[in-house]
Amino acid sequence: MTVGSIAPLTAAEASALTLAADVPNWARGRSKVDGTPFYLAPSRTVTGVAHRCTSYGCTCRGFERYGRCAHSRAVQLHEQHERDIERAFAEVARRARSAETFDRLFGGPDFD
Ligand SMILES: [Zn+2]
Predict the structure, then answer these.
(1) Domain limits at 37?
(2) How many domains, in total, are found in the chain?
(3) What's the rounded mean pLDDT across residues 68-76?
(4) Which of 26, 30, 40, 79 is the most exposed place for a label (fewest CB within 10 A)?
């Protein structure tokens, strides 16, 4: 038996995880240049300011300085979560189709 381990959560990752829960509430927009969708991430330090943010970039000062930020990471986590949900629903649908096919071929469950 293999026992795995979970890496400890860094403060930055914990912060991004907390922010990720709010991403569905963030306003969304599209670039006027190429139509790329983005989120408007509320600034965590300046009230009334929002940053244009995607999973791969952000207009906040942190991203400009370090090439990463909690906003962008939060969008990544949110989008991964959405993909996980879509995958789970697709799997449920696939299993339902398999069960229907099984019932059609062999009849329904026999509880006798
Ligand atoms: Zn940012």
Answers:
(1) 11-106
(2) 1
(3) 96
(4) 30
